[in-house]
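Hey team,

Sharing the 4a-hydroxytetrahydrobiopterin dehydratase run so nobody has to redo it. Sequence (142 residues) first:
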Amino acid sequence: MVHRLKLSISAQNDEDKVAEEVTRLVDNGRWQLSDGNALEGVFKFRTFKTTWEFMNKVAEKCKEQRHHPEWTNVFNRTAIKWTTHTPRGLSLKDTYMAKFCDDVAEHLGEQYEADKPKGDETLKVCSIDAAGDCCARKEGSK
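Structure output:
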């Protein structure tokens, strides 16, 4: 359960509704609250192609909603952070887009990991170091 006082909610949003939606998302274990004003999550898929398809579907919805994430991608993982910059804080657009990401990921067969990183570690899983040898030439290959 997310404590209401830990939330920084964007002005002109129904505070109770945002708190309810954030609590639902965090309690499901797929999203973490970051600094009280953002939702962060990591999505992992079997292939880069599926990961890219996920990102394209989210990007299409972003254009429609006029709302974008902060995100990074390395090979088959995408780390996403939803927050509203103006006015600053969490908004119903953030919770809507986080839920949309969950739905698309489920449809595309996300390889859900219950032990997902928390807090500052979330975006680090999509660093170059986290890619491992996915981009390195295999021994014996030309």
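The helical segments are 15-27, 48-65, 92-107, 121-124.

Ping me if you want the raw files.
A.
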